[in-house]
Amino acid sequence: MPRSIFPMEIADLSAFAKSIRRQIDTLDHKPSHLEILNLLTKAAGFRNYQHFRAVAKTADVIAQWRPVLDDEPAPDEDRVLKTARHFDGQGRLVRWPGKRGQQEICLWFLWSKIPAGREFTERQISELLNTLHLFGDAAMLRRDLFDSRLVQRTRDGREYRRIEQKPPAELKLLLSRIGQKAEAA
């Protein structure tokens, strides 16, 4: 019976190796072939080898893990996977991450949900943000979006508009992970 080949791309080999080492340290025996496959795929962000195989069979999902351009840095998969834990099955932020790197990815996620070329009043942008998170602090999100230069606002804060720019590679990966979560829910 021919063996299927499933390619796996690792963006950060150091984080991958550390994850494997932590997993092996918890074992009290020499891992079997299947256990090693599970350790490798867990370190890459999958639940286990079967989950990886199911995802790897879909070529378009694999393509989403690769950078859009060769000169573009690869997304930090570990940071994206940790950030994705802050979202529920409907793609809403459940809690605000404590780490700034994860907060930045969340702000890009919020930016991606703001329609381009449209002006919003403070109330309208708050209502939109409230549909995207569950912790009830639209004011903090508005301020962080402005401070990160993802939205612009008038001096009096009455009108907001999304600033068009190229998002980081992590945004595409995060949207993919959140979409997978929603499909599983």
Biggest sheet, open or closed, and with what strands and sense? 3 strands, antiparallel
**Amount of helix:** 40-55%
Q: What order do the strands of the largest sheet run in, or round the barrel if closed?
A: 1-3-2
Report the C-alpha radius of gyration, rounded: 19 Å
User: N- to C-terminal separation?
Assistant: 35 Å
Sequence stretches where pLDDT stays below 50 over 5 or more residues: 66-70
Instruction: Provide a count of the helices.
Output: 9
- Total E-strand runs: 3
Structural class given helices, strands, pairing? mainly alpha
Mean pLDDT: 84
Could you describe the 3D structure shown?
- It is a single chain.
- With 185 residues, this protein is mostly helical.
- It has 2 domains: 1-66, no CATH class; 74-185, no CATH class.
- It contains 9 helices and 3 strands, in the order ααααααβααββα.
- A 3-stranded antiparallel beta sheet has the order 1-3-2.
- A hairpin with a 5-residue loop joins strand 2 and strand 3 (159-162).
- 21% of the residues are buried.
- Mean pLDDT is 84; it is low at 66-70.
What is this structure's SSE topology?
Layout lengths: L12 H13 L7 H11 L5 H8 L2 H7 L11 H8 L15 H14 L5 E3 H9 L7 H10 L3 E3 L5 E4 L6 H16 L1
Antiparallel strand pairs: 1-3, 2-3
Summarize the structure.
By secondary structure, this protein is mainly alpha-helical. The protein contains nine helices and three strands, in the order ααααααβααββα. It has two domains: 1-66, no CATH class; 74-185, no CATH class.
Task: List its traits.
2 domains, 3 strands, single chain, 9 helices, mainly alpha, three-stranded antiparallel beta sheet, 185 residues, 5% strand
